Request: fold
Amino acid sequence: MIRLRIITTLLLFPFLSLVAQENILTKEEAIAKVLENNFGIKVARNQVKIAENNKGILNSGFLPSLTGTAGANYQRDDNTFEFPGQFTNDPDTGESVPRPDVELYKAEAQRYNASLNANYTLFDGLGRFYNYKRLKEQYQLSELQARETIENTMLQLFTIYYEVARLTENERVLKQALEISNRRIKRSEYAFEYGQNTKLDILNAKVDVTNDSINLLNTRQQLSNTIRDLNVILAEDLNTIFAVDTLVNFTPSLKLEEFINQADLNNVALLQTERNIAINDYDIKVSKSGYLPTVGLTGAYGWNLNQNAPGAFFPGVNVNNTRNFRLGATLTWNLFDGGGTNVRVKNAKIAFENQELQRKQIQLEVKRDIENALAIYENRLNIFQIQEQNVVTNQNNFERSREQFQLGRITSIEFRQAQINLLNAQTNKNLAKYDAKLAELQLLQLTGQLLNIEF
Reply:
């Protein structure tokens, strides 16, 4: 008896301390946290930012290019100029004498230059125009890819969230079962003292307490592990403890039917195929731009300063300062490039045709997936409703069995069987409830409405 009381205390104490530390995490709060903190969603948003940068005017090729260059050179020479075989008149005597050597030391020369060069493509066969539109379509595709990541993450979030909810409800049911089994022990001991039953009834009750205790401990371990899984997807501290909302609301059937009818307009996979088709269409037009000429404008402004050292024949410093301006136009037409442009156009058309075929394939697959998901959802919803009624039936059976057991009309084994039937019915109902809700969320994802509903 003392040992069983210790087991009960150990089971109840963690539960009480756990409740004291729990924070209620509503579905809305969970969505807000995952949208703000989840690493996969952050990466997807960064990909959208990259696509947004790529579609900007700075990456379009419509702006001119401007380059500046500058240079400076310094030169110093020590020169000796000789004049072999040359004669000159001596100014004093007037006689013809050999011409003396001329020596120049530290003859310095500087050269400076600077220029600005501008280039602008006036016309390139509309290649950059269609490429600019292609980049905009690529940006919209990246947004759809980010949306797909968010949808998958949301589905993953609620798969774990509802598993925490299911285990929480199971823990509550198992705790009640343990309390009932503990009361059975006390009743069996009192009855044994008054000679109303045998020692076997007490032993049976203790065995049931042991089994209920193990089941409760295992469920709590699963709950702790699942809460850590929830913290991972929320990017929270792993030791944070949450109590989740166990209330589940189902979308009305008329609303679901409306969502299914609009699935072609909202399904993210179909929308991505539309963007890919548009991108391939622009690829064809970009490739065709190779058939047309390119017209460009060029302009330059330059400045040069040359300061030359004195020479043998030019004893003074020679300075040359020039400025120049240049403006020109170029016409380039690749009349024949070996057939490269023609090949690129053909390949782009084939890629476009493949995208059209892929769209038809995805349309068929999405339609199939929606019909399957709807059938699964309706089946699980029916199972949940049956399980709800089953709980009511087993609850009534358990209450009657308890009354009969207290009157001594049924054995402890029969009473235990009624208790197990009720326990199984309650846990099966919990499983059916969250299975049905997850099936609904998968259906909503296929219709493209997962991010537009209230949880």
User: Anything to note?
Assistant: Strands lie at 23-25, 65-81, 87-89, 96-98, 102-123, 242-244, 294-308, 318-332. The mean pLDDT is 88. The chain has two domains: 2-37+125-291+338-452, 64-123+294-332.
